[in-house]
Amino acid sequence: MGEMMTYLAASDLCFMGGSLIGNKVGGHNVLEPAALGTACITGPSYFNFTQVVEQMLNAQAIEVVNEEHQLADILEALMQNPKRREALEHSAKQVVKQSQGAINRTLDELTSR
């Protein structure tokens, strides 16, 4: 417990486990690798993080593979194309940055009434 962020920070790429199993697991939190600037790939089962994944998709900050065989292809493509990987990393960091400050905005709203 508590080691995942260290592993993510040391990684060039992250595949979110549980996201190729169907609607049983739903993958894990893609904001963790995004916050660290680690390029992220997920499968189609991300129902428990739909809003975040869709936000990242709109920002071109994540790759989604629909089947297991596509995973090897996208991993290879990202490893062979550092600029594409770096673009994912940069976009992911931007999504996280834009999402920060929710507590302060909520407190400001509550205290301004």
From TrEMBL:
Pathway: Bacterial outer membrane biogenesis; LPS core biosynthesis. It catalyses: lipid IVA (E. coli) + CMP-3-deoxy-beta-D-manno-octulosonate = alpha-Kdo-(2->6)-lipid IVA (E. coli) + CMP + H(+). Pfam families: Glycos_transf_1 (PF00534). Residues 3-94 form the Glycosyl transferase family domain. Keywords: Cell membrane, Lipopolysaccharide biosynthesis, Membrane, Transferase. It is found in: Cell membrane. One of its GO terms (molecular function) is transferase activity. Its EC number is 2.4.99.12. Belongs to the glycosyltransferase group 1 family. Involved in lipopolysaccharide (LPS) biosynthesis. Catalyzes the transfer of 3-deoxy-D-manno-octulosonate (Kdo) residue(s) from CMP-Kdo to lipid IV(A), the tetraacyldisaccharide-1,4'-bisphosphate precursor of lipid A. PANTHER family: 3-DEOXY-D-MANNO-OCTULOSONIC ACID TRANSFERASE, MITOCHONDRIAL-RELATED, 3-DEOXY-MANNO-OCTULOSONATE CYTIDYLYLTRANSFERASE. This is 3-deoxy-D-manno-octulosonic acid transferase.
